[in-house]
Amino acid sequence: MSDTDVNKVLDAVRDVDFPAGKDELLDAARRADASEGVVKALRGIPPEEYQNREEVARSVRVPPDSDLGHSPGQRGEQARRGGRPGQSQYLRDVPKPPVEEEQERGRER
Disulfide check for 29: which of 3, 12, 35, 45 has CB 3.0–4.6 Å away? Predict the structure, then answer.
């Protein structure tokens, strides 16, 4: 799955009318001639109804270092937090740690 990232998966399902189920997402990816890695990533999501592309992005499993830009602190918080069953820990929403927020404010001055 090394050729797969979140953007490729979302691009493959761009024409889907939400809410949509797993089978609809897979069909859309195949119609879009998505790579085998993208189809494989979509096959690995829980069989639920997804309300939007963001929910798909949070559920699909892609390499942790794909393109999310999370800091080490955010990745640690993601590992500690729970998520819905089948959701990849590195795709869970987490805020930046307070130290990182303070560092960014210091750079903006």
Answer: 12
